[in-house]
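Same chain as my last thread, 438 residues:
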Amino acid sequence: MRDLVKKLIPKSLFRLIEPYGHWGEAVLANIRYGFPARGLQVIGVTGTDGKTTTATLITTMLRQAGYKVGMMTTISIDLGKGPEPNPTRLTTITAFDLMRNIKRIKDSGVEWLVLETTSHALAQHRVWGVPYSVAVMTNVTHEHLDYHGTFEHYRDAKWRLFKLAGSNANGLQAGIVNADDPSGELFASSVKRPVRYGITHGDLLATDIKVTAKGSNFHARLGQQQLDLKVNLPGSFNVYNALAAAGVGLTVGLTPDQVEDGIAALKNVEGRMNTIDEGQDFSVIVDYAHTPDSFEKVFKEIRPLTKGRLIAVFGSAGRRDKAKRAEQGEIAGRYCDVVIATEEDDRDEDGLAILHEIGEGAKKAGKVLNHSLYLIHPRGQAIKAAVENAEAGDSILLLGKGHEKSIETDWVNRPGYKKPWDEAAEARQALKLRKAKA
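reply #2:
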């Protein structure tokens, strides 16, 4: 990135800004691309889990209502005409890529931008120059402590998004916060127009919730505005994501009918609770869940719907929060009948050592190695093992990779190497192989 910056910016200006690190890069990027976010209405979405789904719900809803909207998420970059894959695997890309793509979005005639915004990007000032009009918080739970050090530092980095939105005199100065999250009120305190949503607490409260394997229906009210929402995304946690999107819709001036139509229009999000069906008599679900909190949510959803055994296949990334590995294993061990620990993104760590750390947590929950706990490092083999041994009525959860198209591995010998990967395709291949052997 430094070499690219040097090519794009005069040497004298580079020497002036270089000592300021990521913030300096953001300043240079804005200068290089003419402060491209100015004039856009930017909706920032932050949180530990649910960011991409919430951002996609917001974008779909606004477009259904006739708004010209661009979107940038972990999965894709959408100039307003359809998604392009985000190849970086960064939720909020580097400052120069960010400003370059915002310029592309603005040049395409977009008026609104939905921007998934991470704690890393906020802590590193990568989004300097982005005039947030609305800030959205999904939740704040244990994640990225390898970088932030403490939960408080992690939370405060995300809180910065609301401070930016609250101080933008040219924006709506609005914030949509999860009132059921312990950090919700802190975030709400930084904006002039807070909307608190939730199932237990909030101004925008979900009631009469009916959850099925395919989605949910519920009522919600904000003041005198009543909503009858249908969400075509499985999982009760998507009630929260839909509430957050509804809060944005009502804040920017959509009618209840427009909010309802927009949320019902989204049928799926890649890598989020995607069912893989090849005619088998057991279920296979691909999801991006990779944090302890998201594990709790997914397992709580699928356990009651599973007639047979619940089988989880997942790993934990190298060079990332090590403390969560055993916790992931313990949570999976409590809910699941079979736990298969496998590779995720080893990078330059010992992959088998990571699996053993996960396994120690699963053992605390009563799992027994090579009986109800298996350590299978190659992810493809782990998926095949789960599929080959599944029985009628079982549920297999493939967690942690979701939409991602690579596995970062073997960095010791090949720094930065990424092995091509497609979780859904691997699952389909394993199911077809089982069917061929039958």
